[in-house]
Write a structure and sequence with these properties.
Elements lengths: L16 E3 L6 E3 H7 L29 E3 L6 E3 L19 H29 L4 H14 L10 H25 L2
Antiparallel strand pairs: 1-2, 3-4
Helix pairs in contact: 2-3, 2-4, 3-4
């Protein structure tokens, strides 16, 4: 019993076959023709893949360049970082005012995240937790849209800090009541 090395089905006596003159493998004639040659790796009669030519311009678009809103140099249109250190949220060109607005927004988000981490750490300390927890909960609620990125990690951190504040407040109240 012989099997075609391309389709791996039996080669019946009634099938039209082709045999490679280099490695002597037997194939269905249709399989040989569809593949364009032998299916054995390394055989000199093996089919060769046509190599696709590389594009002449990689990252081309919008006339191939854009103006960096940070330093106003001309840079490749697909870049998200300029030589001056400016970073962009997307490859589309940005005006200087759009870039300044985006940068301010990003700095506000960074500041909010640092504040929430500080409040969370503060809420882990029992004495200041009744103060840090509510501040964190209110701040998180007011800035929830701004903090929603990163799968809601910072929103969860803020609300977790609020919950810790409530727990510590109850513990302190129970201790004060003598329970």
């Amino acid at each position: 019993m012989t099997r075609c090395s391309i389709c791996h089905t039996r080669v019946e006596q009634s099938d039209e076959v082709t045999q490679c003159d280099q490695c002597t493998q037997t194939y269905h004639a249709t399989c040989w023709n569809e593949l364009g040659g032998c299916g054995t790796y390394g055989c000199t009669r093996a089919a060769t893949a046509d190599k696709v030519a590389l594009p002449a311009l990689v990252g081309a678009g919008w006339g191939d360049t854009k103006v960096c809103p940070g330093c106003e140099d001309s840079i490749t249109s697909s870049l998200l970082v300029c030589r001056c250190g400016a970073r962009f949220p997307w490859a589309d060109p940005m005006s200087i005012s759009e870039y300044a607005e985006w940068k301010t927004e990003q700095e506000e988000v960074r500041t909010s995240k640092r504040l929430l981490v500080g409040l969370f750490v503060g809420s882990l300390v029992g004495v200041v937790a009744p103060v840090c927890g509510p501040i964190s909960g209110v701040y998180t609620y007011l800035h929830r849209k701004q903090l929603a990125g990163e799968n809601g990690t910072y929103v969860a951190l803020g609300y977790g800090s609020a919950a810790l504040g409530v727990v510590y407040t109850l513990v302190i109240a129970m201790l004060a009541a003598g329970l």
